[in-house]
Amino acid sequence: MFNLFNRDKSISILAPMTGDIIEITQVEDEVFSEKMVGDGVAIEPREGIVVSPVQGRIVQIFPTKHALGIETEDGLEILIHIGLDTVELKGEGFKSYVKVGDEVKLGDKLLEVDLDFIRKSGRSTVSPIIITNMDIVKNISTKIGNVNRGEDSIMNVVI
Question: What φ, ψ does residue 143 adopt, rounded to 5°?
Fold first, then answer.
């Protein structure tokens, strides 16, 4: 018989930043490239504005503002990690526009990042966007190429 109450749900995750997508396995940090925290993509950003890639709720902001977590109403958890080894900057070069508990809509401004400062500090601006609760994910497909924040899909997730 038909199981009308247990349908898969497809969630499109849009680009939180404008730039070029890099496959997660190509990120020069094994925590991300070996998918230790989850699966997804990374973006080499061309500008320092970070927007919400989904509608959801802010569930975590690191004190250094280099990373934040969003949970969708369906329970999908997304980590946006700006740059590599940027925790060492202790928040310098980052400005947050949200706090834990805030409800966000697709395209809402989350952070501003000084990409030149990150580069001058000797760190990479490559920014992983990761699904951290892969246990609920049935399928994930990622995109490649150039993306515009809030407009282009970077991955499609089936839960």
Answer: -105, 170
Q: Which residue has the tokens 């329970």?
A: 75
Q: Which fold has domain 10-158?
A: Glucose Permease (Domain IIA) (2.70.70)
- Considering only CA atoms, which of 147, 40, 57 is closest in space to residue 110? 57
Q: Within a 13 Å sphere around the CA of 30, how many CA atoms are in the beta-carbon half?
A: 0
Report the distance separating Cα 117 and Cα 90, nearest Å.
13
Whether pTM > 0.90 for this model: the answer is yes
Per domain, the residue ranges of the chain are 10-158
pLDDT cut 90: percent of the chain above it:
95
Spatial separation of the C-alpha atoms in residues 24 and 34, rounded to whole Å: 8
Give the separation between CA 102 and CA 148, rounded to whole angstroms. 24
The DSSP string of 86-146 is GGGGTTTTEEES--TT-EE-TT-EEEEE-HHHHHHTT-B--EEEEES-GGG-SEEEE--EE
Residue among 66, 81, 123, 149 flagged as catalytic: 81
pLDDT above 90 (res 145)? yes
Residues of the chain above pLDDT 70, percent: 96
81 is catalytic: yes
